[in-house]
Specification:
Helices cover 8% and strands 36% of the residues. By secondary structure, the protein is mainly β. It has a five-stranded mixed β-sheet, with no helix packed on it. A four-stranded mixed β-sheet has the order 3-5-6-21, with no helix packed on it. A four-stranded antiparallel β-sheet has the order 9-10-20-12, with no helix packed on it. A hairpin with a 6-residue loop joins strand 15 and strand 16.
Length: 212
């Protein structure tokens, strides 16, 4: 029967008792383990995938004054940071620009808002992405990039494209992404609202190994 090495747990066949098929399988397992444990060299830190704590990535072209790579300080999933007015689809993952230990999944295709939401940390909580929005009002002076919601919810939000005063009658809100809606002196651009859900723990890669 085979034994295992102390550090990597590689299998050492016993040629006196192991058959050829078993020995070949154990050698194949050894090669796979060596490959899994080998160093990874990258140009950029991966923004997808699940990684254990202490996972390292090394830079392909380190430079003086730079860091040799990144080390993960928390077991979790990697994802890109939230971006404003970006279209996300169901299943897309993001993390806040300021780490809070959590990752979030898009559960309703649409566009993010102009201001990063306050990301909740309760497990599996669902929330929207229209921070700073208000319900549209008549004869109101709006500024560029103000966000309004129709008085009757239609699943969309509207970003002020042209500053000006709104009309005394609510406009007919367009239902196509990027459509312009004219509103007396102001104008708006239409976007579908998305929805996020807290989806678990985010990895936390940090630079390490300063090169003097």
């Amino acid at each position: 029967m085979s034994t295992t090495t102390t550090k990597l747990g590689l299998k050492k066949p016993n040629f006196a008792t192991d058959d050829i098929e078993n020995t070949l399988n154990e050698l194949a397992d050894n090669f796979q383990k060596l490959d899994d444990d080998s160093d990874d060299y990258v140009d950029f830190l991966p923004l997808s995938g699940a990684y254990p704590i202490a996972k390292r990535f090394y830079k392909k072209t380190p430079k003086s004054g730079d860091y040799i790579g990144w080390v993960n300080t928390r077991t979790g999933t990697s994802a890109p940071t939230w971006q404003k007015l970006k279209q996300y689809t169901n299943g897309d993952l993001i993390v806040p620009t300021v780490d809070n230990g959590h990752i979030y999944k898009c559960i309703q295709t649409g566009y993010s808002g102009l201001t990063e939401p306050v990301f909740p940390v309760s497990v599996e909580i669902e929330f929207g992405d229209v921070r700073g929005s208000n319900t549209w009002q008549t004869t109101t002076q709006y500024k560029k990039d103000d966000i309004v919601l129709p008085t009757i919810d239609n699943g969309r939000f509207y970003v002020c494209l042209q500053a000006g005063e709104s009309g005394d009658v609510e406009p007919t809100w367009g239902l196509a992404d990027g459509q312009t809606i004219y509103d007396k002196n102001a104008s708006w651009v239409s976007y579908k609202r998305l929805k996020w859900k807290e989806a678990g723990v985010a990895s936390n890669f940090r630079p390490y190994g300063k090169i003097e």
